[in-house]
Amino acid sequence: MPDRKQLERWLFSEETGHDDAAEAEFAQLLTGLPRVEPGADFVQRTVTDVWRMRARRRRILALGWAATIILVVAGAVTAYFASPPLATSVIKALAFASGRSVPWLVAYTTVAMDWWWTLARVGGAVAAALTTPARLVAIVGVELVGILAFFALQRIAGAERLGDAHV
């Protein structure tokens, strides 16, 4: 066990800023401490618990695989023996559902496509009206003026941040 004087010398070296002396005092202080080692009883209990957990994990894994194999085999056997009676009812249910839903699906698709064709015709008419040479020049001119305004606004805002704005 380290004595109190060693501890005080180390603390004094730390407080005064003598780093090399503080390191040496600290190393000497730590060498005087007793080694901490686990007892034989602790080691035995820990090893026993680890082996139990390992055996438990292996049992759970083996039981999981066994349960998976049993479920797959049971599902396959059930499907094999139950498929002839169930096949007719499943086919009838699918035919009934598709017979009721397919006509509605075709009708809704037809209506949706009619709307899309109408929108395409309207868009084409608007585009044809706007793409005359005079209107095209006007639209491009307005766009260029807008871009110029945004550029000027950005330059003014940037100069204002830097303190160079003179308005």
Descriptive tags:
167 residues; mainly alpha; 88% helix
**What is the typical, i.e. mean, pLDDT?**
85
- What share of the residues lie within helices? over 70%
Measured by DSSP, the beta-strand proportion falls in: under 5%
Kindly report how far apart the N and C termini lie.
79 Å
Compact summary:
The protein is an all-alpha fold and 167 residues long. The chain has a domain at 1-36.
SSE blueprint and pairings:
Layout: H1 4-16, H2 19-31, H3 40-130, H4 133-162
Helix pairs in contact: 1-2
Task: Characterize the structure shown.
- With 167 residues, this protein is mostly helical.
- The chain has a domain at 1-36.
- The protein is 88% helix and 0% strand.
- It contains four helices and no strands.
- The chain has helices at 4-16, 19-31, 40-130, 133-162.
- Helix 1 (4-16) runs antiparallel to helix 2 (19-31).
- It starts with a helix and ends in a 5-residue tail after the last helix.
- The relative contact order is 0.03.
